[in-house]
Specification:
Order of helices and strands: EHEHEHEHEHHHHHH
Helix content: 55-70%
Strand content: 5-15%
Structural class: alpha/beta
Number of strands: 5
Low-confidence stretches: none
Shape: elongated
Number of helices: 10
CATH topology of the largest domain: Rossmann fold
Radius of gyration: 23 Å
């Protein structure tokens, strides 16, 4: 496979060797890298996190079902998008899988076109997730460069407090607060307060772990 044509990584988890061989060959021929696992347990033991990637997951397997693996991954914080494949499934299983974030649920036999579409959707989602993680790490690094006083003032700034209000809250002179605000913007790489606020709400769940 030409690395320049690499489209993404596929973890293929299915206890049917013939399906694994067939899908792995087809996907590899389409410039995806593929790792096959004959059980969820093998995946948990031997897989390494790669991005962008998707998990192509059979529903019915001995020892652990596809939805049980999905729940295990969610609990561990591993967010690689999942595409379920199944020969037979109950409506409740499909609903549960989709409710917990599955990209798609394909019933066997499915067309390669529908599979490729689902894989590309999953890879796009994983790329966006990875880009957001990089962005959050960058913002955390910028925030860590602030002094303790500047971090405190940064939090007040993004909550909409002006110089006078912040001065009253922390006992500083308004002129001192103004100086700190300028340093906060500079170290955070923002020219204006709206830019700083935009950083703080870009991903509420993660950014507010930084800004408090």
């Amino acid at each position: 496979m030409n690395f320049d044509d690499f489209r993404g990584h596929v973890y293929l988890i299915d206890d049917d060797p013939s399906i694994c061989r067939s899908l792995a060959f087809t996907l590899s021929s389409s410039n995806y890298s593929v790792q096959t696992f004959d059980s969820p347990q093998a995946f948990l033991k031997d897989s390494l996190p790669i991005s962008p990637a998707v998990i192509l997951l059979d529903m019915r397997m001995p020892g652990m079902t596809g939805t049980e693996l999905q729940n295990t991954l969610l609990q561990s914080g591993r967010e690689t998008p999942i595409i379920f494949i199944s020969g037979e499934s109950q409506p409740s299983e499909i609903i549960n899988a989709m409710k917990h974030g599955a990209i798609d649920f394909l019933l066997k036999p499915f067309s390669m076109e529908s599979l490729m579409t689902a894989i590309e959707n999953g890879l796009n989602k994983d790329r966006a997730r990875q880009q957001q993680l990089v962005r959050v790490m960058d913002i955390r690094q910028r925030f860590s460069r602030l002094t303790e006083k500047e971090q405190e003032i940064c939090r007040w700034m993004i909550k909409g407090y002006g110089n006078k209000e912040i001065a009253e809250l922390n006992g500083s002179a308004p002129s001192t607060v103004k100086l700190h605000r300028s340093r906060v913007l500079d170290k955070m790489g923002c020219e204006t307060l709206p830019e700083l606020i935009e950083l703080s709400i870009d991903d509420k769940r993660r950014i507010f772990e930084v800004f408090g």
